[in-house]
Amino acid sequence: MYLEASATASRSPVSALHVATYPVRFITAASLFDGHDAAINIMRRVLQSQGVEVVHLGHDRSVEAVVAAALQEDAQGVAISSYQGGHVEYFSYLVERLAEAGAGHVQVFGGGGGVIVPEEIALLRSRGVTIFAPEDGQRLGLAGMINTLVEKCDVDLAADPPALDDVLAGDPAALARAITVLEAGRSPELAAALRQAVASRDVPVLGITGTGGSGKSSLTDELLRRLRLDQEDKLRVAVIAIDPTRRKGGGALLGDRIRMNALDSADPAKTFFRSLATRTAGAQVPEHLGDVITACKAAGFDLVVVETPGIGQGDAAIVPFCDISLYVMTPEYGAASQLEKIDMLDAADAVAVNKFERRGAEDARRDVARQMVRNREAFGASWESMPVFGTSAARFNDDGVTALYQHLRGLLIDKGLVAGAGVLPVVDIKASTGLTGVLPAARERYLAEIAATVRGYHATTREQAGLARRRSALQTTRELVQATEEIDALLSTTVLSSDVQALLDAWPARVEEHSGDELVYTVRGKQIRTALTRTTLSGNKVPRVALPRTTEPGELVDFLRRENLPGEFPFTAGVFPFKRAGEAPARMFAGEGDAFRTNRRFKVLSGDSEATRLSTAFDSVTLYGRDPDPRPDVYGKVGTSGVSIATLDDMKVLYGGFDLCDPTTSVSMTINGPAPTILAMFLNTAIDQRLDRFREDEGREPDAAETEELRAWVLANVRGTVQADILKEDQGQNTCIFSTEFGLRAMADIQQWFIDQQVRNFYSVSISGYHIAEAGANPISQLAFTLSNGFTYVEAYLARGMDIDDFAPNLSFFFSNGMDAEYAVIGRVARRIWAVAMKEKYGASERSQKLKYHVQTSGRSLHAQEMDFNDIRTTLQALCAIYDNANSLHTNAYDEAVTTPTDESVRRALAIQMIIDKEWGLSD
Fold first, then answer.
1. Sign (positive/negative) of CA torsion 226, 231, 234, 236?
2. How confident is the model at residue 839 (pLDDT cuts 50, 70, 90)?
3. CATH assignment of 2-155, given 3.40.50.280, 3.40.50.880, 3.40.640.10, 3.40.50.1010?
4. Given this model, what pLDDT does residue 918 score?
């Protein structure tokens, strides 16, 4: 019982904390267009540890979704994190909508670190919202702060039962309160009245149970989606999702609602979802589940679906409560003999072997079906005739799930479901088809192979350096003493590999090249002359590249294979021999308000630069692929922390006045989920610019051939980067619109189009570690994740049939910098690993071996207190990036910890780079 769990919670070491007297239920989420969910995940865990039943909605949740959840879940409180701006509008609208929905008693709590300033906290408090500031956490501690929520929401909702007529009329709020009362066992009269009301109604109940982690919630969601589509939203469905109560603390994570995408567009009057905790540790179902099902039937629903927590082999507690039962499992169940122990294989009307894309799934489905043949003693039947389906609920529109749905629909109709024939085409299979992944199964160990390749390269370096030392010692010995047959024999067997010997043979010429005043080298067929020294004010000549002074062969082998000169494999010191003259590495991130405002900021940032390097920040509405909207929870985010771009006309205004095809112009766009659309807008803007110039120069419209020629020229010459890193979004920032698999396929489509259109100077992806670092990674894990993502894209594109040298030059990287020591060499390590893997593992050309990357100084290192000192931190990080030969650099403004940067703070941030570039004597 809940009181038993609460008693357990009262034995917590923090004895001063309030222990709830009544069941406390909370809705937790990150606000709309906000993927920063680390904080709210911590909060909901602490809430759970203090005995709260937490219904977690995840990130990017609209006010309507939160209100619907609060109403149906009958929660006492809502806790929302908001780190992406628009918080005043969001929280104000949330309070307003709760009141309009008859849930004005629900208390609203929020937080956003330093993003929500004191004036806004006071304003929201006056509107009924409790906002916690960083100072509250310092004063109360995390547990104490969360306990404030528990104490304020410890009210007895069951003391206010609904009117029976409202429940029978199907009012969602009344049904939700009725379930609360029934759960508490406080109104036998209400339970009896509801049972009497449904005595003449024949409403089928579908029970879904299975092992923990088998994907029950995702499968339930997919079944609901098909029911809605198939029956054209004519049926009313109630879903009861049960999760276990923790023995320690008495809390529960009610996490099934987060999977229910089918609810987002559903009419609340036709779809009801309620999460229940068992409130008894170890129980499979709550004590009053039967009464809760009865309440849903009485409210007029045509179908009730009950999903249980994960169960063990001997559990089948759902069977007495349902008319049709579905057992969900995965292919990983151990030996086939384990199937004989699963009680639900005796009772289930259908079985789903979910996650059917996994290895061994076909064999698992066969073994499960054969076990059902034995259990049912249907020895004359084939195993294929058993109701065992292979499904992949995580895959969009999976035909195995459709087959399962159609089978269940027939069973439910036999039990009284009033359903039509359905509009979905009949699927005549029993297992998912077309499950080929983005990567072929044979390439699953690609990261291990790359690691072995890099280790092998360094082992060879050590071996060859040792041989070089030994050979040098033998040659010296031979010169100092009389030659012997033994020395000659040792020399004849101590032979370096041909490539290492070639490096040593070429070294004297390289030393000679770098000993003069000027070096001539070639990049993409262009001859470039560059000075080899800089003269200080004191008259000293300082070499731009310092060569090793050693002549010892072993040390030279180690240097040439591990370091080498800039522009030489393995490119540890840099991918180009020297920094590009006339183009500073500055690429400043900008985006705020509408396109006109950001265009003005771009012109301020690039006004005095030899080259125009624009880096575009989009607002969170654009990042999530949505259009601006006057609805308050959307409107408050428009143009906040980035520029709002909804149309091609917006894009043209954004880059108006900049020649996007000028060789000194480069544009970076930080966009991921909707990257294909934004990229199409940008390229069309560049093409339209060139067409407009033709009209202006020629005084006429271009014909079809001229238009196509201009278009091809633009695509071949436009410079820039689109981030489009879907793996990083899945790992660190959460602006995902599509599934990861679909996103990878879209990225591959874009890269193939780049190849077909001969797009050579634009990067199709910026493989990003910055946001992974901002989410909490250290320098080593940031680099590990980022390079792993890069190699995953390589494998995905190779699997599509692309040639490594056709796409690798279109890949770029983006790293964070910081105050940790490892950031001083993050670029060196990345370049060497990438180059070695590209050459030794994939056989790529020299151009493909060169890893180019952008650095942004750490936003996580900025302090909200005494912000002026942030410029010191940023200067140190910028200096590390420049010493590390980053290809471009963004320096954060000192005030970004709390607000959108001002013109003054951005000028100071840019000045950091200009001073290093123009005044610091060691930056070139």
1. negative
2. very high
3. 3.40.50.280
4. 86
